[in-house]
Structure formats: C-alpha cells, structure tokens
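Hi U.,

Before I forget, here's the chain from the pilot set. I'm dumping it here mostly so it's searchable later in email.
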Amino acid sequence: MNIPKELKYTKDHEWIRVEGNMAYIGITDFAQKELGDIVYVEIESEGDELTPGDVFGTVEAVKTVSDLFMPIAGKVIEVNTLLESKPELVNSDPYGKGWMIKAEIADNAGMSATLSAEDYSNLISA
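Structure:
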C-alpha cells in the first residue's frame, strides 16, 4: 500500500498535499483499490468555498459511486480537467496525475483534524 509520508490524510480516505497556501486533494491508494476501476469523476465545485466534510464531487467506479469529501476549509480554485478524459489516472497515479482539486487554504482550514501517514496506515490496517 502506497502511503506517502509527506502527505496528510482523512478518515474518509482523501489525501492533502500542502504547497504554501494551496492544497492539492485526491483519494488515497487504499480508496482507489477499494472502489475498483474508476470510470468517471464529477467535480462541479470550482469556485466554491467549502468547509471540512462538504462534498466536493463524486467518483464513479464500475461497482459503486462515492462522494468526495473536502478535508479542509478552502476555496476550490482548480479541478484536474485531465480526469474528464482519463479518470483511470485516479487508479494508476492517485498521488500524482490523479489529483482531483486544488484549493486555496482558509485561515481556519482544519488541518489539525488530518492524519499523518502513520496514523492513516494504522486506520486502514485496523
């Protein structure tokens, strides 16, 4: 299982990569394996101010549809448009080309509620 140490994680299986005041967000390697082959990603929250727990989109796999939850407070400033034509990138490269949104982090972002790689590893192996 690939759980990069430099990222933060949520109990809902999203990851967060912070770069300055921006955060890239996607779903974890564990989540994509549980979902199976991703066939469609729908994200219509660009420009929206969201708080932790808000739904920012959905991901459709062969066997299910799952909501995507915003892990922090912030404004969605970019959606990975590459996923429109290549949703399978979420399976093949969940932490790289399979990122889903880029958000401007709010002052009270809620980063303290995120998990370290070690804590996330313990969560999924419990």
